[in-house]
Model the fold of this input.
Amino acid sequence: MDRMDIMLFHSTYGLRPAVEAAAERLRAAGHQVHVPDLFGGRTADTVEEGMALQKEIGKEELLKRAILAAAPYSERALVYAGFSFGASVAQTLALGDDKARGLLMLHGTSDIAENASADDLPVQLHLADPDPFESHDWLTSWYLQMGRAGADVEVYRYPGAGHLFTDPDLPDWDEAAAEQTWTIALAFLESLQED
Done:
């Protein structure tokens, strides 16, 4: 089986130890993982600080930084992945890359353009249930839109978990949900290698 190249984008908290730990977990499974720092070395202690940082940098600049980070690997069939805000970035890049091999989304989604095309793109989404940033109505709409775009979507919900439940340094941490997420996610990545 060939090695997967994964672009892993951080959450609104910035490039924290949990993101690096996740990258190491993926590398231990045999994948090549690239972890861009979209905030230029800055991190946030709260969601509110992170959102203020995103606003300060600007949506267009953040997307530009993400595209530039992925550009050196553009000849490869990348798997895009991310946490919360980073999942929305990963989604945007994956839907704009006709060579994308897969999309792994943890804790977040994003708007989908009307003309988005994701022919048979394998997508896996992991979310708390309920999630304060991802309402059930929104997720139903998102799921239907991704299906219309042609994506092959799997959604996993974790009752009682906090929003960023895979980050052991945050109050949202849920060890059981996090381990279940990584078990399912690693199997998803392995299935992409077999395609």
